[in-house]
Amino acid sequence: MATVELRFSALPEHVRTARLVAAAVARRAGVDESALDEVRLAVGEACSRAVGLHQQGGVGGAVRVALIDQEKRFVIEVGDGAGEHSELAASADGGAAEGGDASDDALGLAVITGLVEDVEVGRDDDGGLIRMSWPINPA
């Protein structure tokens, strides 16, 4: 199982780089060409959400992206370090980080769940975590 990890400052201009790297690693892992646009869009939405949570909460730290090549699945985990701000944004009542827009957050999550068949939204020790996966084509 190979893993590529990215960490970037919570700035919108870094989201494009994360999208490009995710698509390149997904292609190399064996994700079907027809799914690469989904990978790019889903990673872009997840990273943009993480950047937004950092900025809304005035939180420092990095956005984390792990690209994991498993035996039959390609997994992408996008984590933020927004701590309690992630919890507010992911709450069941659709709340957003203070000063944030709950509808923007809900829309971003809806786009991700519409693009990715296997997606989990949760938390880790640092903040929010979105875990997405795609099947890998046998060589």
Describe the structure.
With 139 residues, this protein is an alpha+beta fold. It has one domain (2-135): Heat Shock Protein 90 (2-Layer Sandwich). 41% of the residues lie in helices and 27% in strands. It has four helices and five strands; from the N terminus they run E-H-H-E-E-H-H-E-E. The chain has helices at 15-29, 36-57, 84-89, 102-115; strands spanning 2-9, 62-69, 73-79, 118-123, 128-135. The chain has a five-stranded antiparallel beta sheet. It is globular, with a radius of gyration of 14 Å. It holds the Pfam family HATPase_c_2.
Write a concise synopsis of the structure shown.
This is ATP-binding protein. By secondary structure, the chain is α+β, with helices and mostly antiparallel strands.
Average residue-wise pLDDT: 85
Helix content, binned percent: 40-55%
Strand order in space, largest sheet? 1-2-3-5-4
- Following the backbone from N to C, one meets helices and strands in this order, namely EHHEEHHEE
CATH fold-level assignment:
Heat Shock Protein 90
**How many strands, what sense, and barrel or not for the largest sheet?**
5 strands, antiparallel
What is the number of domains?
Answer: 1
The CATH architecture: 2-Layer Sandwich
Give the N-terminus to C-terminus distance in angstroms.
16 Å
**Mind telling me the C-alpha Rg?**
14 Å
| Poorly predicted runs of 5 or more residues | 91-100
Structural class: alpha+beta
CATH H-level superfamily: Histidine kinase-like ATPase, C-terminal domain
Q: What is the number of strand segments? A: 5
**Helix count from the secondary structure assignment:** 4
The shape, in one word, is globular
- Indicate the proportion of strand residues: 25-35%
Per CATH, the class reads Alpha Beta
